[in-house]
Design a protein that fits this description.
- It is built from 17 helices and 20 strands.
- It is of the alpha/beta class.
- It has 3 domains: about 90 residues, NAD(P)-binding Rossmann-like Domain (Rossmann fold, 3-Layer(aba) Sandwich); about 210 residues, Mur-like, catalytic domain (UDP-N-acetylmuramoyl-L-alanine:D-glutamate ligase); about 130 residues, Alpha-Beta Complex (Protein-Tyrosine Phosphatase, Chain A).
- The strands form 4 sheets. A 6-stranded parallel β-sheet has the order 7-8-6-9-10-11, covered by helices on one side. Strands 15-16-20-17-18-19 form a 6-stranded mixed β-sheet, sandwiched between helices.
- Helix 6 packs across helix 12 and helix 16 packs across helix 17.
- Its main location: cytoplasm.
- GO terms for molecular function: ATP binding; UDP-N-acetylmuramoylalanine-D-glutamate ligase activity.
- It is found in: Cytoplasm.
């Protein structure tokens, strides 16, 4: 009996444990912290051995294979020891993929991957595909492979999940864009992070597809220097392409399988340049899987978008409140500010992942009248924008940030929460930050 050790008792860990048990592995789950009640109940009900608040090395180093949660960096001692002992350390995605024959769409990128994943899933579901959505969102991929019988999966994949793959190969891979993010996990070298994203295509065959942003410098540079067997399918909003997706006269034009797909930009429910790109990627994916054109169009017209991503919360006294808590890096916030067409009070701050705020200066100069800081350390924000914005206020909670913004914003203006930072200094995660923001707005 093969021994499967799982590090991390969260969504991916517990899902892997359920699948591993079904496939006859001897299983041990180990979490350095506390395991949440709902996950502990699943482990107990399934009679799976586990420990919390500790890693017992003797019970871990005897593994045949280790699945580690994406939150654990490769550089921690325990992972290094496993690798020295030649024990394979993989991600949930790698483990689960070997037990399904389903067609897999894998979507990665620094920004836009959640929206693209949800939109692709929305189209396929409307087209009556038997499809599951997993990866970075929803129920764990492994648990769905164990308990469901889906013919297709749409997976949102982070670079950390891709770091743990060996043989995983999606039939269709999508790279939405690559901008500096999580550099603290990649020796502060952008090239390491780029290489990590491109692992999505490393095992693809000539019958597979790689859909990518042809306007993205990092992606283009990688493709010039490296080879993939997959068929390349580009999208662009900056120039017309002979093959792929582009814009002509305010219409999305897609030319991939001899029949031209054409749709007015104005009919898309999700707005902004980045969402046009997300829609292109999702549409081409659905076309490659032979979804009906009419269904694709209708789905693009009624898609509601991801929670915590440019989500319209409410209008209070003529002021629009927008929750973009999922913007945990500079590029995501760049998109959000770019979409603002009214004078904006911008709530920003949190745990900085090595941010360079200078890219935002032109947008802030043009659109932002006041900055409300929502983080423990705001020095960098104050230093960057102090000369550009007259009002910068520091707050230490969502409720206070909303109250201050409410005082500063006037009728016809917008309050935008788009933090450009991680949330762990004041919140459990970006969802918690977004929910607290929305509750504070509702209590105004």
């Amino acid at each position: 009996m093969k021994r499967l050790v799982i590090l991390g008792g969260g969504e991916s860990g517990v899902g892997t444990a359920i699948l591993g048990k079904k496939k006859g592995y001897d299983i041990f789950v180990s979490d350095k912290g506390k395991i949440a009640k709902k996950y502990k109940e699943v482990l107990l009900n399934n009679k799976i051995e586990f420990e919390e608040n500790n890693h017992t090395e003797s019970k871990i180093l005897n593994a045949d294979v280790v699945m580690k949660s994406p939150g654990i960096p490769d550089k921690v001692d325990l992972i290094q020891k496993l690798k020295k002992n030649s024990i394979s350390v993989i991600s949930e995605i790698e483990f689960a993929a070997q037990f399904t024959d389903a067609t897999i769409v894998g979507i990665t990128g620094s920004n836009g991957k959640t929206t693209t994943t949800l939109l692709t899933y929305h189209i396929l579901k409307n087209a009556n595909f038997n499809v599951g959505v997993a990866g970075n969102i929803g129920d764990s991929f492994a648990q769905q492979v164990a308990e469901q019988d889906f013919d297709n999966y749409v997976l949102e994949l982070s670079s950390f999940q891709l770091d743990g793959i060996q043989d995983f190969a999606p039939h269709i891979a999508v790279i939405t864009n690559i901008t500096p993010d999580h550099l603290d996990r990649y020796e502060y070298d952008f090239n390491n992070y780029i290489a990590s994203k491109f692992r999505i295509t490393k095992n693809q065959k000539t019958t597979d597809y790689l859909i990518y942003d042809a306007d993205d410098e990092a992606i283009n540079n990688w493709l010039k220097k490296n080879k993939t067997k997959a068929k390349l399918i580009p999208f662009s909003i900056e120039r017309e392409l002979e093959f792929g997706a582009f814009i002509r006269k305010n219409n999305i034009i897609i030319n991939i399988n001899k029949d031209i797909f054409n749709m007015p930009l104005s009919t898309l429910t999700i707005k902004g340049k980045h969402n046009t790109k997300n829609a292109m990627a999702a549409t081409m994916t659905a076309q490659l899987l032979k979804a009906r054109r009419q269904v694709i169009k209708e789905s693009l017209e009624d898609f509601e978008g991801a929670e915590h991503r440019l989500e319209q919360v409410a209008k209070v006294k003529g002021v629009e409140y927008i929750n973009d808590s999922k913007a945990t890096n500079i590029n995501a916030t760049f998109y959000a500010l770019e979409c603002m067409d009214k004078t904006t009070v911008w709530i920003v701050g949190g745990v900085d992942k090595g941010n360079d705020y200078n890219d935002l200066l032109p947008l802030v100069r043009e659109k932002v009248k006041a900055i409300v800081c929502l983080g423990v350390d705001n020095e960098k924000i104050k230093n960057t924008f102090g000369n550009v914005v007259d009002i910068i206020v520091e707050t230490v909670g969502a409720e206070e940030a909303v109250k201050v913004s409410h005082k500063l914003a006037e009728r016809g203006e917008t309050v935008l929460l788009s933090p450009a930072c991680a949330s762990f200094d004041l919140f459990k995660n970006y969802e918690d930050r977004g929910i607290q923001f929305k509750n504070a707005v509702k209590n105004l």
